[in-house]
């Protein structure tokens, strides 16, 4: 019985550690030296419960987000296993679009009708 439980736990551990992944969502903008960057750790659970909401921040240049990356690591996966999914930390990184703001004097392009 002890061997059976250790094999199940080992398989579960191997499956969970393989979950150390990175997911990146990227838009059409530009990443420039002027792009803002931020990192937050999101504390949630597998049972649709969020322990702490990440702060909401807006980009200073009025543009949208350029890239968002959510990732976990082996320690985060181990914490998730030990807590039986009640506590699941994930790191979220974001970059603002670094496209320079359009000059107010510059005329907007409007296609012909």
Set out the fold topology.
Elements: H1 2-17, E1 22-26, E2 37-44, E3 50-52, E4 65-71, H2 74-82, E5 88-96
Describe this structure in words.
By secondary structure, the protein is an alpha+beta fold. The mean pLDDT is 77. The chain has one domain (2-96). It has helices spanning 2-17, 74-82, and strands at 22-26, 37-44, 50-52, 65-71, 88-96. A 5-stranded antiparallel sheet has the order 1-4-5-2-3, with helices on one face.
Q: Please provide the ordered H/E string of secondary-structure elements.
A: HEEEEHE
Structural class: alpha+beta
Count up the helices.
2
Write out the strand line-up for the largest beta sheet, numbering strands in chain order. Answer: 1-4-5-2-3
Radius of gyration: 21 Å
The low-confidence parts are none
Number of distinct beta strands: 5
Main beta sheet: strand number and arrangement?
A: 5 strands, antiparallel
Whole-number total of structural domains: 1
Percent helix, as a range, is 10-25%
Strand content: 25-35%
Shape: elongated
Q: State the end-to-end distance.
A: 77 Å
Overall mean pLDDT stands at 77
